[in-house]
C-alpha cells in the first residue's frame, strides 16, 4: 500500500518534471525569437549622423526635473541639455546593472546542463547584454555628456548583492532593472521629438529586452513555488532593499551640476516632485503587480518597496 509520504513524493516529482518541461518549452520559444529578432547596433544604427538641433535626448516628461519650479526657470536649451546628460546617466546605470545581471546569469547556470535550452537561452541573453552594454557605451561616447558611474557605495552594494543573492532574488533584481527602464524606453523610441540615434538605441533594447523579461518572469514564478521558505523570505527582503538602491541610483546628482544647476536644490525638488513620483510608480507598476501576484511583496519586503518610492 502506498503511504501518504510516498504519494506526496510522487506528486512532487511529477510537478517538478512538469516545471522543468515548461522551462524548456519557454526557452525554446525564446531561442527561436532571438534567431529572428536580434540586432547588431554597430550596423543597424547610423552613428555618424549629426544630432538634430532642438531635439531631445529623452522625452521631456521623463526628465527628472520636469514640472518642478526649477524646470519652469530653465531655458529650453538648458532643458534639452539636461535630457542629454540624464540619457548618458541612464546609459551608464544600464551598463552597471547589466554587468551585475550577466554575473548573476552565469551563477544561475553554473551547475546546470549546458545542453538544456534553458542554459542556451541564458547564454544568448548574456550575449545580448554584452551588445547592449557596448551600445550604451558608444551612445555615451557619441554625445557630449560624460560617463556617469554609480556611487562607490552602490558599487560595493552591487558586489555584496552578487555574492549573497539567491536565484529568486537574482531574477527579481533582474526584472527591477529591466522593466522600469523598458517602460521609459517604450515611450522614447516612437517619440519624434527625440534624437534619431537615441530612438534607435531604445528600439533595439526594447525588442531584445522583451525576451529577457519573459525569461526572468517565468523563472521567478517557478522559483517562488519551488524555493525553500527561507529563500522566498530572503528574496522579499533583498528585493525591497535593491528597489531602494535602484530608485536612488536612477538619477545621478552630478548631471545637475554639469548643466549649471544647483545640485542640492535640484535633488530636493526631484524628491518633492509629485510628477516624478508618479512617473517612477507608473514605470514600476507592471512589475509590482506581477511581484504581488507571485508573493514577493509581503511583510518587510513590501515596506521596503514602499519606502523606495516605486510602490504606492
UniProtKB/TrEMBL annotation:
It comes from the Bacteria. Transmembrane segments: none annotated. One of its GO terms (molecular function) is oxidoreductase activity. InterPro entries: AurF/CmlI (IPR025859), Ferritin-like_SF (IPR009078), RNR-like (IPR012348). This is Membrane protein. It comes from Streptomyces fuscichromogenes.
Amino acid at each position: 500500500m502506498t503511504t501518504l509520504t510516498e504519494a506526496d513524493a510522487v506528486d512532487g516529482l511529477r510537478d517538478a518534471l512538469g516545471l522543468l518541461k515548461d522551462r524548456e518549452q519557454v526557452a525554446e520559444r525564446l531561442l527561436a525569437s532571438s534567431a529572428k529578432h536580434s540586432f547588431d547596433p554597430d550596423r543597424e544604427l547610423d552613428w555618424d549622423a549629426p544630432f538634430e538641433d532642438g531635439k531631445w535626448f529623452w522625452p521631456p516628461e521623463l526628465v527628472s526635473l520636469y514640472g518642478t519650479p526649477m524646470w519652469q526657470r530653465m531655458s529650453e536649451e538648458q532643458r534639452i541639455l539636461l535630457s542629454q546628460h540624464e540619457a548618458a546617466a541612464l546609459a551608464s546605470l544600464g551598463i552597471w546593472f547589466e554587468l551585475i545581471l550577466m554575473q548573476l546569469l552565469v551563477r544561475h547556470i553554473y551547475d546546470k546542463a549546458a545542453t538544456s535550452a534553458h542554459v542556451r537561452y541564458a547564454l544568448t541573453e548574456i550575449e545580448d547584454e554584452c551588445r547592449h552594454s557596448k551600445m550604451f557605451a558608444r551612445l555615451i561616447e557619441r554625445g557630449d555628456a560624460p560617463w556617469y558611474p554609480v556611487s562607490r557605495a552602490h558599487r560595493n552594494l552591487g558586489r555584496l548583492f552578487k555574492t549573497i543573492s539567491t536565484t529568486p532574488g537574482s531574477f527579481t533584481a533582474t526584472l527591477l532593472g529591466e522593466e522600469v527602464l523598458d517602460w521609459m524606453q517604450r515611450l522614447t523610441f516612437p517619440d519624434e521629438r527625440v534624437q534619431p540615434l537615441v530612438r534607435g538605441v531604445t528600439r533595439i533594447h526594447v525588442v531584445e529586452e522583451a525576451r529577457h523579461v519573459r525569461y526572468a518572469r517565468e523563472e521567478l514564478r517557478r522559483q517562488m513555488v519551488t524555493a525553500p521558505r527561507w529563500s522566498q523570505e530572503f528574496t522579499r527582503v533583498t528585493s525591497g532593499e535593491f528597489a531602494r538602491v535602484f530608485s536612488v541610483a536612477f538619477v545621478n546628482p552630478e548631471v545637475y551640476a554639469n548643466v549649471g544647476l544647483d545640485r542640492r536644490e535640484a535633488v530636493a525638488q526631484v524628491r518633492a516632485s509629485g510628477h516624478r513620483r508618479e512617473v517612477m510608480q507608473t514605470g514600476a507598476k507592471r512589475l509590482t503587480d506581477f511581484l504581488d501576484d507571485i508573493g514577493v511583496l509581503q511583510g518587510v519586503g513590501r515596506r521596503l518597496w514602499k519606502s523606495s518610492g516605486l510602490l504606492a
